[in-house]
Specification:
The longest helix is centred in the last third of the chain and has 34 residues. This protein folds into two domains: 202 residues, Up-down Bundle (Growth Hormone, Chain: A), CATH 1.20.1250.20; 231 residues, Growth Hormone, Chain: A, CATH 1.20.1250. Helix 4 packs antiparallel against helix 5. The two termini are 28 Å apart. With 504 residues, it is an all-alpha fold.
Length: 504
């Protein structure tokens, strides 16, 4: 039987085994689009100064990153819904097309505004690639085999995030910042060829006429944009904002959320599957993704500042020190996938993993200032090894609990909750750091704000006396920040332990 003739409905029912040769042929058509979408979240980081030097408008350069994140978040439920209705192979082609066209437009941008708008278009394609790739795992692979391949996908996510800044720095130095977008074209073309060659078409069976939920999309866009805009300013400005303004912003967001939930619960074909999210296993898994994303991304975001400012490491040393942290997440994800596949047990593995994660972070809080840089790096690697027990299991629980015609919406919900959790966790930890620093010295807090906005290199521009004060203050503040991250993982323990899906 050829790959193209596989009946996916039969595969989901377990009548066709997911043998290694068959899935290996299909996996490349799923993994490459995921790699392409994830790497573009971070590949631009090293090129931002060059972009600002060419296009000007340096105060808005951060939107090159934020715009992609906002658009990818919005795209997740859209592609999930459309993939369930029209087939994921078709949506993969559309997402690749949008991504490739947007990459060309980014490379041709002659102003910062044009670049930001094109990056948002690119995010609409990238979000579709991520959601569709994850949903295809649930569509192609029988439940018992999914953990292993979800572990592989989690490894791709981590590897892409780690490789992005390195590739971006090399390409920008060698060929200029526009090359980081043009390099996407041959990769996207190869991905399209693999999708056309390897990925089977699925027969869509619809009993009712499909109607897209445009009002739900409008409310969802307003909700996401308002939340991410607020969170992007919270780390360095939220503490100084008037309470009435914070209250007004919170009230507006809650009103939008209430309107969205009310509309989606009454719509026959909703964009956001509220009924699906009411499932006990699914909402607990999604909330676990939220707190896991908050812990992991906030840790990765602020550790470079800690290494450079508080511990005196150089930028080159910092890159090496972060390797155990990023590599261990992928290793933990692969090991978890194999353990779940072999044992069939689901909730117990992330529960144990998060208990060990929390213990490691508490140890980090108490001992970080007394450890050498190598010892600190190894402890962080151990921490993220345990954190790897969550990523694959969350997708597995959600997809196993959803009906076959809702797998796309289920996969999109995980991506959505993880993204929102990452933004929320990073904002909260940043706000904690800023508040602790501001409580001791406002000028120190201002220096921290500049470092967050422009990178640890700002630290080297300070006078020697200011560097000494800032180093000691940030070392103290990070003890509170690590404790905050431990709170995130503690909540995750409860969510994993109480998930009703115990075995596959």
């Amino acid at each position: 039987m050829s790959v193209g003739s596989i009946d996916l409905a039969e595969r989901e029912e377990g009548r066709i085994p997911a043998d290694k040769s068959t899935f290996r042929a299909l996996f490349s058509s799923i993994a490459l689009p995921m790699f392409l979408a994830i790497i573009d979240q971070t590949i631009v980081a090293a090129a931002l100064p060059a972009m600002a030097a060419t296009l000007g408008n340096v105060e808005n350069v951060s939107w090159v990153v934020v715009g992609y994140l906002v658009a990818a978040t919005i795209a997740a439920p859209v592609y999930g819904r459309l993939g369930d209705a029209f087939g994921r192979r078709r949506m993969m082609f559309i997402a690749l097309g949008v991504f490739a066209v947007a990459s060309v437009l980014c490379a041709l941008a002659d102003s910062m505004l044009m670049l930001i708008l094109c990056r948002m278009l690119q995010g609409l394609g990238g979000g579709g690639l991520m959601t569709t790739s994850q949903a295809l795992i649930g569509e192609i692979v029988p439940p018992r085999e999914r953990p292993r391949y979800q572990g592989y996908m989690a490894t791709i996510v981590v590897s892409s995030n780690m490789f992005g800044p390195v590739a971006g720095g090399f390409l920008t130095h060698a060929f200029g910042w526009r090359s980081i977008f043009l390099i996407n074209l041959p990769v996207a073309l190869l991905a399209a060829v693999l999708v056309a060659w390897r990925l089977p078409a699925r027969k869509i069976r619809r009993d009712t006429r499909f109607r897209f939920d445009f009002l739900g999309l409008a409310l969802f866009v307003a909700l996401v944009v308002s939340l991410l805009l607020t969170l992007s300013h919270l780390p360095h400005g939220g503490i100084s904002l008037p309470l009435w303004l914070l209250g007004l912003g919170g009230a507006l967001w809650l009103a939008l959320l209430a309107l969205l939930l009310r509309h989606e619960s009454r719509t026959e074909q909703p964009l956001i599957p509220v009924k699906l999210l009411r499932h006990s296993a699914i909402w607990r898994a999604n909330m676990l993704a939220t707190f896991h994303g908050a812990a992991l991304v906030s840790l990765v975001t602020y550790l470079p500042i800690y290494f450079v400012v508080a511990r005196g490491a150089s930028p080159a040393q910092t890159g090496l020190l972060l390797i155990p942290l990023t590599a261990s997440v992928g290793i933990g994800s692969m090991l978890t996938g194999k353990l779940v596949t072999a044992s069939g047990r689901v909730a117990i593995i992330p529960t144990i993993g998060l208990v060990l994660t929390t213990a490691s972070i508490i140890a980090l809080t108490l001992t970080a200032r007394y450890l050498s840089l190598v010892e600190l790096s190894l402890l962080l690697g151990l921490t993220t090894l345990f954190m790897g027990s969550v990523m694959a299991v969350v997708q597995l629980i959600v997809q196993s609990s959803a009906k076959p015609d809702s797998i796309g919406a289920a996969a999109a919900s995980v991506q959505l909750f993880r993204t929102m959790g990452s933004a929320l966790g990073t904002a909260i930890v940043g706000a904690v750091l800023f508040a602790v620093l501001a409580a001791s010295d406002v000028r120190t807090a201002e220096h921290f704000t500049r470092i967050v906005e422009h990178g640890p290199v700002v630290f080297e521009t300070l006078a020697a006396a200011e560097r000494l004060v800032l180093r000691d203050a940030i070392a103290n503040a990070f003890q509170i920040a690590f404790g905050t991250i431990a709170v995130f993982t503690t909540v995750g323990i409860f969510l994993a332990a109480t998930n009703p899906l115990r075995r596959l």
